[in-house]
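Inputs:
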Amino acid sequence: MSGKSKLIQRYTAGDRVNHALLALAFILAGLTGLAFLHPSMFWLSSLFGGGQWTQFLHPLFGVLMFVFFFVAMVKFWKYNLLTGNDFRWLGRLGDVMKNREENLPPVGKYNPGQKLLFWSLVLAMPLLLVSGIALWQPWFAPMFPIGAVRVAGVVHVLSALVLFLGMIVHIYSALFWIKGSTRAMTRGTVTDAWARKHHPLWHREMTSGEKH
Amino acid sequence: MTMQSQDVVKRSATTRPSPSVRHGVEVAKLIDTSTCIGCKACQVACAEWNDLKEEIGDHVGIYENPLDLTANTWTLMRFAEVEPEEYEFDWLIRKDGCLHCGDPGCLQACPAPGAIVKHANGIVDFVSENCVGCGYCIAGCPFDIPRRSAKDNRVYKCTLCSDRVAVGLEPICVKTCPTGCISFGSKEQMKARAQERVGHLKARGYANAGVYDPEGVGGTHVMYVLKHADQPELYEGLPKDPKIATSVALWSGLKPFTAGLMGLAALGAFVHYFAVGPNEVEDEEEETGKTRAAPPASKED
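Outputs:
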């Protein structure tokens, strides 16, 4: 059997569109947020028409990001439950980092790194939303006591850090590290060999019907 | 707009020093609450000088008018009927407004470069054209002073008449006060004058009289003489030991740390790409349909 031409469906058109919108909202919310994170990145506000525009747009991008994330979360949470094998995988992060997947316990639809990323987003996204609402001028911040707004500021920065660290790993892995991954989100399919190499249990599941 | 003739010693969201070669004298406004008669001339003069017009509100049966500071009311007379001790009554009047902290919480919280500056003379000024309208200064202030304007999405407060002070005039409230309970000069002069007034009050039987110049915010450039300095809360909630809230310090302190960690993570990914390289599906795997059976003998570790 040749794996060259054989493709396996990984994401539906709906999944891909939602992911693309989520990615776009993340980029926009991220750039507008970075402008206010540190003075060295304030210039990013120029991309959005200045500080006043950036302050207006950031929460809107953030809410969109949350909505698209929520859609993905509802669909994908069940594939991201951690299993016993996953902890063994996480115990061999050295092999993960050095591309030696043959030393790792076989992986299903998502590897434990992807699952942890998923759950870190499940933590960070609602925290960003709630703290962001408390900081949102002029609509919502005046409804909160000043003490709550202050705590929201701390929570917003820390959950943004979790989100960004997760996204750096996610974007690096998908675009640069694990070759052949990107097409899953652009075309919906991956090659048979890619699935067998990176997600053997999922590959077996997806191809068992035709083999037996 | 900042006055080029005034040095800037602190500037919001700015990591390099601002122009600061000139030597300025620290100024201060002293408000002697014991000689204030609550006439509100200062409040009117402030609106007059700064071209502010408060909306006409409702009278609810108390002297405060308007009921709170707003983007159009930068100073407000607050009236408090209190019992400092049992069976004792006092009617306290305090001119509320920005205290121009030595260590301003608003400035620390502000993410917009140059939207809040602290001049060498101690005046903390909002530079409206740089304001982004995020309202973080409102959360940063230990005294609940800044107010956002719905009209232009910018935040306003007392400027200590920085425009007048820059050309050698006293703030307009000082000029207007008919009893002389507001005075203006160098911070040292005002501290000396305050002590004089405190001595006077003590001689009159106010054993707890004192100066309100709280250390927790690095001292202030608007000071009060209080008859009940041991209980500043009596004066419509003047905080006893104000300082920048720990949450505000944490919030602004975490930001550079967060930005640094993000940069490090991105750098880590960059290094990984060149040290280990991408994980590719190799030709043989593609053709044989088998994943490598054994680990490579001499892969770079």
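Remarks. Strands of chain A lie at 7-9, 189-191. Chain A touches chain B through 60 residues (CB under 8 Å).
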